[in-house]
Amino acid sequence: MILTGPAIAAAIAQGEITIEPYEPSRISPNAYDWRLGSTLRVCDGDLDAAAPTGFTETTIPAAGFVLQPGVLYLGVTHEKTGSEHFAQLLNGDRTIGSLGIWVHVSAPLGHQGHAIRWTLEIQAAKPVRIYPGMTFGKLVFIAAHGTADSYQHQAAKYAATDGIDISRLYEEIRGARP
Questions:
Q1: What Cα–Cα distance (Å) separates residue 120 from each residue in 2, 35, 130, 146, 153?
Q2: Helices (H), 39-138
Q3: CA distance 3 to 11
Q4: What is d(CA 79, CA 72) in angstroms, rounded to the nearest whole number?
Q5: 16 noted as active-site residue
Q6: What is the value of pTM for the model shown?
Q7: Averages of pLDDT over each 10 residues, the chain, 178 residues
Q8: Per the residue annotation, which of 16, 23, 121, 171 is the catalytic one?
Q9: Residue pLDDT, tens place only, 132-160
Q10: Which are the contacts of 157, defined by CB distance < 8 A and separation ≥ 6?
Q11: HSE-up of 45 (CA within 13 Å, CB side)?
């Protein structure tokens, strides 16, 4: 079951959902409008699942940054979100999609106990200028059914991240190159 805007606000007031920084005006009928953080990692060269991804890190200036087609960018949410009570789904929204920006298509699920700033996969269909702090998507909260098993208490690769993380799939691939 997806929480309504008033249910999200009530869960925040009760400490069941954390959004930092939180702005009540960003609650919509069934979601919270999240923003793009100020840092991007531009992935370098060819990508290899068996090796760490090379990147160049840049701060998005107030005047904006132009995304180029054919480049994988890793970004980060402005907000840190979490809940031991609810799972989360993070997606781009229509306004970003209408600009030809694909954001966070492959990994929208935040497990119960997920409490981090989200690493975002970003690609553009055409050159498009983005800005730090701009609304970039919607965060939905979902009531879970069954016994809770907190993500933060698992031996999960990304449980402790507080910024942009490259893929760590190479940790699982036998014979991978560190």
A1: 22, 11, 14, 29, 23
A2: 94-97
A3: 9
A4: 22
A5: no
A6: 0.86
A7: 96 97 97 97 88 91 97 94 91 93 82 81 97 96 77 58 74 69
A8: 121
A9: 999 999 999 999 877 666 555 556 555 56
A10: 168, 171
A11: 7
